Amino acid sequence: MSAAPRQLSAPSGRLLAALLLLGGAAGCASTSRIPASYYLQREAIRIAVIPSGNTTDFPEASIVFDKAVEEALRQKGFQIVSADQVLTYASARGLSLRDLPKRKASEIGSDLHADMLFFTEIDTWKTSYVLVQAKAHVAGVCRMTDASTDALVCRLRWRQEQASGGGSLGGLINAAVTAVADSAFDKCSRLGEHAAWMSAAALPQPGFAPRDAPP
């Protein structure tokens, strides 16, 4: 059951746009300007992580990102309904993962006893090779929806890039043949995990106004 709302000091009426610069890789997680209202007045928030939509060539990317964002949200103090639990719920009701974003958040939230739903669409998860440089690139969009009102709480566009060079052209060609899969998945996995943590970090703490909110 969702915890009863606890009224705190009056929060800001919106989340301000935020840009997080990530050390060691170029990337960002940015929030759109949206109403915070009731969300910021709750102390205990239960978030259902909906299994990520994924249009890349790496279906495993969804598992990597979902696991990372679940742990990141737990570290921030949220209660979590895991993506695996949501998948079990959908299967029991004869729903596909594509059906979930089309359903009302309030219906899913009621079934899962969740206050918020966290959706992700992963659209880039790849490593490309240009001359003697390998470049990993991951990107996607997260959004969180209030399960009691169907209102959009937060929408974040995230991306991570990391370039590395070295070796001769011949060595690079060999690497492109023998290590594309490993490099693409392993390197992108690290970037995807980082993006998940940064996306969670862009959310306010449960029951508190955003860090950058005006007094």
Topology, pairings included?
Blueprint: E1 14-15, E2 26-31, E3 34-35, E4 46-49, E5 53-54, H1 60-75, E6 79-81, H2 83-92, H3 105-112, E7 116-130, E8 133-146, E9 152-165, H4 169-178, H5 180-201
Parallel strand pairs: 4-6, 4-7, 5-7
Antiparallel strand pairs: 1-3, 2-9, 7-8, 8-9
Helix pairs in contact: 1-5
Index terms:
disordered C terminus; Rossmann fold; single chain; alpha/beta; 215 residues; two-stranded antiparallel ribbon; 31% helix
Would you write up a description of this structure?
The protein is an alpha/beta fold and 215 residues long. It has a single domain (24-201), classed as ABC-type transport auxiliary lipoprotein component (Rossmann fold). It is 31% helix and 29% strand. It is built from 5 helices and 9 strands. It has helices at residues 60-75, 83-92, 105-112, 169-178, 180-201; strands spanning 14-15, 26-31, 34-35, 46-49, 53-54, 79-81, 116-130, 133-146, 152-165. Strands 2, 4, 5, 6, 7, 8 and 9 form a 7-stranded mixed beta sheet that branches. A hairpin with a 2-residue loop joins strand 7 (116-130) and strand 8 (133-146). Helix 1 (60-75) runs parallel beside helix 5. It is globular. It starts with 13 loop residues before the first strand and ends in a 14-residue tail after the last helix. Mean pLDDT is 73; it is low at 1-38, 166-181 and 210-215.
